[in-house]
Design brief:
six-stranded mixed sheet; Lipocalin; Methylamine Dehydrogenase, Chain H; mainly beta
Length: 1111
């Protein structure tokens, strides 16, 4: 069976509005780019607090805000031409009502531009205008609506009528009506409702010749009146925004200028004597004025303005496509009925906000605003009078379209890198092994090379390698003059009223009196019951409490490497001990008796260097064991009063260097000299996820807890930091590197801390390429390579050159860039001293690339012979000769025409997999003996996918080859072929609900199976497809999903479009497993009776869920 787990949801935001429910708390309502979900947040103390997500069966195309009887609400329009309304009450409970459904008979929907929807800004909304069908703008009028109850259909006794108003034809025209206004064959860019004249809307549009116009349309007007409205053409101007203003008329912002068109009553316009940069045009078409924006020295560059919000009658906040914000200030005075004076019209640059979604800007209150973004973070921000003017208060992470995916290539570290975004803005993301920056509370540097830290009461003792010590106050790290001196040979020290216990390397002392004279090697303090546990070099384990002391022998352990203990209630202890051979034992100590309750051993010559045991629920404990190979083992044990009832186990890679553990109550830190990792519990599985913590000054010396959240970090150079660690709630976090350019491709370099990003810049007349070198630890840009000559070089793909013979010459990596150039299609680069160096650019000997030849992809085909596969409208093999100054040569007879155009490829071990944009998927197997024969493209059967394939990859395992193909409808075909007999083949089909943009092979082995591949979608979704044996749980999971109304994955997009959903039972979403685990936690006894098979396999389900969501 296969499990589809989610790394990142398809929650990129598009449109948003801010409304005030009856409780007068601002609420952000944001529509996801997929149109399937509205997400609600409340604004509280400059924070965005998530409320809920509302899923829709139909795709919502547009939303706007209305006000009825003092209550604000959200109106939406979906792809079934339904107009709905969303109310939010004073407790943030939501109610949705369908108002009407438009007839699409004889009409065609617009497909080349967004759907625009805007509401009348009056105190009580009178109408909504929208453009969903070609050649017509519709106006939805609210007729005599006096309250929200009229829309909800509430009866006088305050209950909702059982008959829906949308189904009652007699209601038509009573409280709403629809007006259609013909606008001709134009591309509407914006609709704006004017304040004056009333009942008038202005539209901007582009005609078939790409010329821009504006035009005013009366609402509920008569056709001859429409014809009299002037149509204003803008020559050599790119229109951006129409902004209604309170004095009447509207402002038009273009990329170069500001235009103001007054109300038709105004016949005369003048400027004050101080104004000399505004030109008044007394045109026969329309009186207006113009101010040029992009004059030298005014601080305003050429911009495409996409979002605005009216602050008051004279101030307007503007956001440009680049993410920069501006304040537009106007001062206009009406001196008579027919005359207006322009005193000021100025635009000031404020600073960068975010890459905006069109008209996604909302004014919340005072200086607080919200801007939604599809391609970057949506932000809550303030505009301040002093520089810096923009202050980001809070943000919502977006999920921009996934353009490229790569595996981290780290030694054991499971990372994913993605390029996400569009031409408007993008980001380079890192998933897994993300470094979280803690809050720095205090810092101190002492003149000592730190080896160890120890906290005793309110004192932190700092030791060097010679045993010298310095005492500091824990709360502020200031020197402490009077303190208890703890020598460096002390393993543990504990003190409470009437009891003082000290374990040294040579003895155990109680209240200053020697109780045991032995050589002690490890110890652990259990403060809840005033007990100290210590182990001697003779393997004798001593338990010393306030009231008693006893010892027992750990006979089976050969040489103990660590010990820890925990209180489990009623005075009982659990003691964990490990040894060099990989064995470990757990005893329960009650009334001076030790009972062995569990034992185990590590595999593959692995042994434990350090351990910690903590409580993990009422009857659960979890033992952490750090091994010699840098991994962390977790042993989850469910205890009953008499025995161990259930045991589960998992392993995670942490570092290439062995780690130590520190704990405080149920909090655990894992560290070595180069990494610091905090652990966060996953409530569903019971295991703990690792969260890497950013440390600024390596190497680390030691860490210790001051409180549950506050940690002291000691560095070998003498620096000590006191920090607060607050871990993010999401299971898989990510880091982002933002750009207003396009991150197209990324390439992690193995065995280094480098990643190369391909960045396209279209801000100039041509598309230019940059190569960014990024440090994968700090996720910062180290250097940028510019393609100077020839100008306009466009990189289309990037590939690693895996040649270990040249490791010394270019020790940090070699890679090749495929470009659109026919003269120099291939550039070879090296990474030297944190810089990208061009080693050669060249043609492909043996082939003449004419302008008609377009290459789109490159990948390694045969590492031993340094052969690479290139494809586009041809498919060709090329060979790299590194010794001959990186010369490229065509492999004879390998070039063949593509069926149409290859949009995606994957090659490995002399097999090529190709996704053609029109004709489907193909493969080509080229044996070494046939290397110089013509490539033969064999069609892969994908009959259910149509002709819109977008991505392909393949993974080989011991028993199977998996070919994974995705298309524009969201369909994924997983073709499972027997490695020994290709005729044995099985196809698994499912639909992910969104266009597949890219698929990348993983092939990561897990204890329960393997991670096959990762899939990225156009709405920013990132999913991992896992292969596992669920031990006969398949049918039980399907049954559970059906009973609990959980949707299984649909088989294909065509069935979805036809409303005939067929469901894939071989591939289950991890959300089903997560729901099973949550039911077990809520009521295990009832669940065990209803779903006995799932309950008996709960350990497996916990492990699968945990590892499916681990990166």
């Amino acid at each position: 069976m296969f499990v589809l787990s989610k790394v990142s949801g398809q929650d990129a935001l598009s449109q948003s509005v801010v409304i005030y429910p009856l409780n007068y708390t601002a609420c952000v309502v944001a529509l996801t780019a997929s149109g399937q979900k509205l997400i609600l947040y409340k604004v509280e103390y400059n924070e965005l607090i998530y409320l809920e997500s509302i899923d829709f069966d139909e795709k919502v195309l547009a939303i706007t805000k209305i006000k009825i009887d003092g209550q604000e609400a959200v109106v939406y329009l979906d792809d079934q031409s339904q107009i709905g309304i969303l109310f939010i009450d004073n407790e943030f409970c939501t109610t949705i009502k369908i108002l009407a459904k438009l007839s699409s008979t004889g009409q065609s929907k617009i497909i080349d531009s967004p759907v625009y929807m805007v509401a009348d800004p009056a105190a009580n909304t009178r109408f909504i205008a929208f453009h969903i069908f070609c050649e017509v703008v519709h106006v939805f009028h609210f007729n005599s609506i006096s309250s929200v109850d009229d829309i909800l259909g509430k009866t006088p006794n305050n209950s909702v009528s059982s008959t829906r108003r949308k189904n009652r034809r007699s209601d038509l025209g009573k409280w709403w009506s629809l007006e259609s206004i013909s606008v001709g064959r134009i591309n509407v860019k914006q609709i704006a409702i004017l304040e004056k004249p009333t009942n008038t809307m202005a539209i901007s549009y582009r005609d078939s010749n790409s010329n821009f116009f504006t035009r005013c349309l009366p609402v509920k007007g008569i056709d001859p009146v429409h014809a009299k409205q002037p149509i204003i053409e803008f020559e050599q101007e790119y229109l951006c925004l129409i902004i209604p203003i309170q004095v009447g008329g509207y402002i038009v912002l273009s990329t170069f200028s500001i235009f103001y068109f007054p109300d038709d009553q105004i016949q005369y316009m003048s400027t004050s004597s101080e104004i000399n940069d505004i030109a008044i045009i007394q045109s026969h078409v329309k009186l207006h004025c113009i101010k040029e924006l992009t004059k030298p020295g005014n601080g305003i560059s050429e911009e495409n303005y996409v979002s605005f919000e009216i602050i008051d009658k004279s101030r307007f906040l503007i956001i440009a496509e680049s993410g920069r914000s501006y304040l537009l200030f106007t001062d206009m005075e009406i001196s008579s009925k027919t005359t207006i004076i322009i005193n000021q019209m100025t635009m000031v640059s404020l600073g960068e906000v975010t890459i905006p979604y069109y008209n996604g800007l909302s004014h919340i209150a005072g200086d607080l605003f919200f801007q939604s973004s599809q391609f970057s973070r949506s932000v809550l921000f303030s505009v301040l009078p002093e520089k810096p003017h923009i202050h980001i208060r809070a943000y919502i992470e977006s999920s921009p379209p996934v353009l490229d995916i790569k595996d981290g290539c780290g030694q054991g570290v499971e990372e994913l890198y993605t390029c996400q975004g569009s031409w408007e803005g993008s980001e380079l993301r890192k998933y897994g092994a993300v470094q979280h920056t803690p809050e720095l509370l205090e810092t101190k540097t002492i003149d000592m090379q730190i080896e160890r830290l120890r906290i005793v009461n309110s004192t932190v003792m700092v030791y060097n390698i010679d045993g010298d010590s310095v005492a500091l106050e824990t709360h502020n790290l200031m020197p402490k003059i009077t303190h208890l001196k703890i020598e460096s040979n002390v393993l543990d020290y504990y003190k409470d009223p009437g009891f003082q216990c000290c374990v040294t390397r040579s003895s155990l002392l109680v209240n200053g009196k020697t109780m045991v004279n032995e050589s002690f090697i490890y110890s652990s303090v259990v403060p809840e019951i005033s007990t100290v546990v210590a182990v001697s070099d003779t393997k004798s384990i001593h338990v010393q409490s306030k009231n008693y002391e006893f010892a027992f022998e750990s006979e089976k352990l050969k040489e103990i490497t660590s010990i820890d203990a925990i209180h489990v209630g009623n005075g009982a202890l659990l003691i964990l001990a490990t040894d060099w051979s990989g064995d470990y034992r757990i005893w329960k100590v009650v009334n001076k008796k030790a009972k062995l309750i569990y034992s185990g051993e590590m595999k593959d010559q692995t042994f434990v260097l350090d351990s910690a045991v903590v409580q993990s629920g009422e009857n659960d404990i979890i033992a952490f064991m750090s091994t010699n190979n840098g991994s962390l083992h977790q042993l989850l044990i469910h205890l009953t009063e008499k025995r161990v009832d259930n045991v589960n186990f998992t392993e995670q890679y942490v570092s290439d260097v062995p780690c130590f553990l520190r704990k405080y109550k149920n909090n655990v830190l894992v560290f070595n000299f180069k990494h610091l990792v905090a652990l966060k519990k996953d409530e569903l599985s019971g295991f703990f996820f690792k969260k890497y913590i950013h440390v600024p000054k390596l190497p680390l010396a030691d860490v210790c807890f001051a409180t549950e959240e506050e940690v002291l970090i000691g560095y070998q150079n003498g620096r000590i930091d006191k920090v607060r660690i607050v871990l993010p709630s999401q299971v898989v976090s990510h880091q982002s590197l933002f750009s207003n350019k396009l991150y197209l491709k990324c390439l992690p370099v193995p065995l280094s801390k480098f990643l190369v990003g391909v960045v396209l810049d279209c801000s100039k007349d041509s598309i230019n390429t940059q190569l960014h070198l990024v440090n994968t630890d700090s996720f910062e840009n180290l250097s940028i390579f510019e393609f100077d000559e020839p100008s306009g070089v466009q990189v289309v793909d990037i590939c690693l050159i895996q040649d270990w013979q040249n490791e010394k010459a270019h020790k940090d990596g070699l890679f090749v860039c495929l470009t659109s150039s026919t003269e120099f299609p291939l550039y070879v680069f090296g990474i030297e001293e944190s810089r990208i160096v061009c080693l050669n650019r060249g043609a492909i000997l043996g082939i003449d690339l004419s302008p008609d030849v377009k290459l789109n992809s490159i990948s390694l085909f045969d590492q031993e012979e340094q052969t690479y596969l290139c494809s586009g409208n041809i498919v060709v093999l090329v060979q790299l000769d590194i010794d001959e100054n990186f010369q490229w040569t065509l492999v004879p007879r390998s070039a063949v025409h593509s069926p149409a155009f290859v949009v995606s490829q994957w090659s490995n071990e002399n097999v090529a997999y190709l996704a053609d944009a029109i004709y489907g998927a193909f493969s080509s197997n080229v044996n070494k003996s046939e290397k110089h024969n013509a490539m033969k493209l064999v069609k892969i059967d994908t009959d259910s996918m149509g002709n819109q394939i977008t991505a392909i990859t393949a993974v080989r395992s011991k028993n199977y080859t998996y070919t994974i193909i995705g298309d524009a409808l969201g369909n994924v075909n997983l073709i499972q072929t027997d490695s020994n007999d290709s005729s044995i083949c099985r196809v698994h089909k499912f639909n992910i609900g969104d266009q597949i943009n890219c698929i990348f092979a993983l092939g990561r082995k897990k204890s329960w199976g393997a991670q096959i591949c990762v899939v990225g979608t156009v709405s920013g979704g990132l999913f991992v497809l896992n292969n596992t044996d669920l031990n006969g749980c398949n049918d039980s999971l399907v049954e559970f999903a059906a009973r609990n109304h959980l949707e299984l994955l649909d088989c294909d997009g065509e069935s979805v479009n036809n409303n005939e959903k067929s469901q894939c039972k071989e591939i289950v979403s991890d959300t089903v497993i997560a729901r099973v685990l949550s039911h077990i936690i809520a009521n295990s006894s009832e669940f065990s009776q209803t779903y006995s098979n799932l309950y008996s396999n709960r350990n497996l389900l916990q492990s699968v869920h945990f590892e499916c969501n681990s990166l």
